[in-house]
Design a protein that fits this description.
about 210 residues
Length: about 210
């Protein structure tokens, strides 16, 4: 019987980890395949710029048989060195990644397109969409309505209202990172906010 050593165990655990399309597979396809198989230059009518186009395949049919790398044309051509055309053979580490990706189902998020700058795909650069405000029996602002709806869906409730002393301490720690002077605990909430925002310690903490 063979002995399961620590290196073998580590390798086995690493192999079992889910493959990230965005971090592991996308760079390979963009570097090795996209030049010849994009929306403008699609050799063999094969365009890999989107998940839909990739799944459709080209003249030879779908490039991947999910779960079966040895029966997937993409892996066959890459492993044989026939792809990419005119370029060096894909490194073994990248071939192993492609193989694991196919074995795990060849998942490709529909929101990811190849060849686009990251900022065009990142959520912060999308068109803002104003969601409907959840209905609430409390007279509150829209932000609180979203918070209450999320708490309710998770079977959670709001914490009890903090006392004045606790609120003043929170303001000091949040805005300056420093504890308040005992005398400062007697100031009103509004006075404390104005005082801390005008304090140089506020700028030092957040700068």
């Amino acid at each position: 019987m063979w002995k399961l050593t620590l290196p073998l165990l580590v390798a086995a655990l690493a192999y079992a980890q889910p493959v990230s399309f965005e971090q592991q597979v996308q760079p390979i396809l963009e570097t090795r395949c996209l030049r010849c198989h994009n929306a403008t230059v699609a050799l063999s009518d094969f365009n890999i710029s989107t998940s839909t186009a990739f799944s459709k395949g080209g003249k030879q049919g779908p490039p991947v048989s999910a779960g079966k790398p040895d029966q997937s044309r993409l892996y066959q051509l890459a492993a044989s060195g026939k792809m990419p055309q005119g370029g060096p053979k894909i490194p073994e580490t990248e071939l192993a990644t492609l193989r694991r990706w196919i074995e795990q189902g060849a998942s490709w998020p529909a929101t990811i397109s190849l060849g686009k700058p990251a900022k065009q795909q990142w959520w912060a650069f999308g068109t803002p969409i104003k969601p409907p405000v959840p209905a609430s029996e409390h007279k509150t602002n829209p932000i609180d309505a979203f918070i209450r709806a999320k708490l309710q869906s998770s079977n959670l409730t709001l914490s009890p209202k903090a006392d004045h002393r606790t609120l003043i301490r929170r303001l000091h720690f949040d805005l300056t990172g420093l504890p308040p002077d005992p005398k400062a605990l007697n100031a009103t909430y509004e006075q404390t906010v104005a005082q801390l925002l005008a304090s140089p310690h506020y700028g030092e903490r957040w700068g």
